Amino acid sequence: MSKKILTVDDSKMVRMIVTSTFQAFDCVVVGAADGAEGVEVALKEKPDIIFLDITMPVLNGIETLAKIRATPEIAAIPVVMLTAESDGQRLGMADQLKVSGYIAKPFKGEQLIELTKGIIPLVLKGAPPKAPLPKAPLPRRP
Amino acid sequence: MSTADTLHAKYKLAAPPENVVRLAKLVQGAFASNAQEIAVIIKADPSLTARVINVATRGRDIEMDIDSAVARIGVHQITLVVLTELLLHAVSKTFATMLRLTLEAREILSASGDQVVGCIQFKGKANGRVFLRIPSKAAEWIVPRFLGKDLPMEPAELLPDVVGEILNIVGGNFKSNLVDAGLSCSLSVPQVDTRPGFSAEVGDDEFHLALPLATEGTGLFLDLIISPIAG
Fold first, then answer.
1. Are B180 and A87 in contact (CB < 8 Å)?
2. Inter-chain contact A87–B175, Cβ cutoff 8 Å?
3. What local confidence, expressed as pLDDT, does residue B119 receive?
């Protein structure tokens, strides 16, 4: 089943990079341009993972993360911060709000894939579904 | 190990390079250190030493040692030079990681034609603004470098967003280095527009440093305007 990824960033460029990064995988990427819209889209789409910027208008990334954690329907969704702000203060705030990962901009697409694979399973498009392993006969007791 | 170091390790984030940490701490120390102490720290960094001497001699071919240069330009202007180095480091890192491009400081004639101009403001112990200007005609090569060749719209339409995001990344890196060195700093959201020319509005008591940068495709322009830093 396709995985759903939400990218919340006021930069169209970053949303496009995230979308193209996961193009090869069986997943759908949806976007939001600020934190308030991000919460709305998360409630509607129930994504499997959220990439969240910090410096954004309306609601910044830390406020957005707090709102996500306080909203029961989406509170358990893994959130990865994708931001240029990686000082100890920001990291501490995100850590307290139980982020699943933190990527500092500037970033490469491979970093997103590697971190995502550690949180949700990613399957390449067109890859055959994994066949169940044949049952091995139980070893005979001597 | 500090809390910041522990959290960097927990999230597998690369620690800032040693020279960046030293520069950020120099800005912090500059509020309390005297000129001789600052000169000793600057001497350990050849690129910073060259820039400080260049500022002190106003680019003229005069022999001057770093102690004299520091004494001549004073602690506040040294702080400006160090902040500039931190910004340049952030810009170079962004271009190298996301565009695989090397930038170098070079004398370039001012851009002709329309430019996309982005501005980000920082407030805290140091107050100022950073402008990034990229000629509109550079959109054709710079945007595909960021986003690949299959673009959903014309490169020129995406250039303002590219400029805004570069500034966002540069500002965020700059801020993070200052905050980890113990200085308060907050950032604005980038403002971007397209205009035919650019002239920085600089207050009487503000410093302005214009930095033309060249890369294989074009020249781009970085302007740092900073208010005097209170001790």
1. yes
2. yes
3. 95
